[in-house]
UniProtKB/TrEMBL annotation:
Residues 1-23 form the signal peptide. Keywords: Signal. The keyword RNA-binding does not apply. Residues 21-182 form the START domain. The keyword Signal applies. One of its GO terms (molecular function) is lipid binding. This is START domain-containing protein. Pfam families: START.
Length: 206
């Protein structure tokens, strides 16, 4: 069984490596063993905290996040992605296009992915939008902010603890009726996609 705890919050603070511990969380959604909690502090900036136990090796999760061909399988509403450049295995850049609900235009950007091996054995993947590297396109919008930090801790050879912090400000005017949908569905479904992709890849490799 997949155990997931999702905490989501509107906030203007930048994403950091420390958890947000002073938020007043309220449960707003539960699907089987998937729970979504939210605390509203500010509007238009979206931060989520997610915990999950995934039945897949730690390295498999890293491979999924770094693979541009897997972007549309795990990152919610990602249409396409491809490598821009890669200095080494721990630092690469992807260009991606992300579909957004009507009436919003699709978003796109260059995403930097950095992999860090911690002294305690954990791996941290930092994903951050690089606006200055993103070309202007008349039919696409560059988000104001997109950051994610994925922390991976080995439980067994075939099981990994995943911690995800996800920050998103899509930019532009977001209709009020769409804010909650973006606030809940984007981080929630991205986490589910990461789990499904990693577990599917694990079975394929066996």
């Amino acid at each position: 069984m997949i155990k997931i705890l999702i905490n989501s919050v509107f906030i203007f603070a930048l994403l950091s490596s420390t958890s947000i511990s002073n938020a007043d969380w309220n449960q707003v959604k539960q699907t089987h063993n998937v729970k979504l909690f939210r605390s509203t502090l500010e509007a238009d900036q979206y931060i989520s905290r997610i915990e999950a136990e995934v039945n897949a090796p730690l390295q498999t999760l890293i491979d999924v996040v770094k693979d541009p061909n897997a972007c549309n399988k795990w990152l919610y509403r990602c249409q396409t992605a491809h490598h821009i450049s890669q200095t080494d295995d721990a630092n690469l850049y992807l260009y991606y296009v992300r579909d957004y609900p009507f009436p919003l235009k699709d978003r796109h950007g260059v995403l930097q992915i950095q992999v860090e091996h911690q002294s305690n054995g954990e791996f941290v993947l930092n994903l951050e939008l690089r606006k200055n590297m993103t070309p202007e396109e008349s039919t696409l919008v560059i988000p104001e902010t997109f950051k994610a930090q994925i922390r991976l801790a080995k439980i067994t050879d075939d099981k990994t603890k995943v911690y995800l912090e996800h920050q998103l400000n899509p930019g532009g005017k977001i209709p009020n009726w769409l804010k909650q949908s973006i606030h809940e569905e984007f981080p929630f479904n991205s986490m589910l996609g990461l789990i499904e992709s990693a577990q599917s890849r694990r079975h394929t490799n066996h």
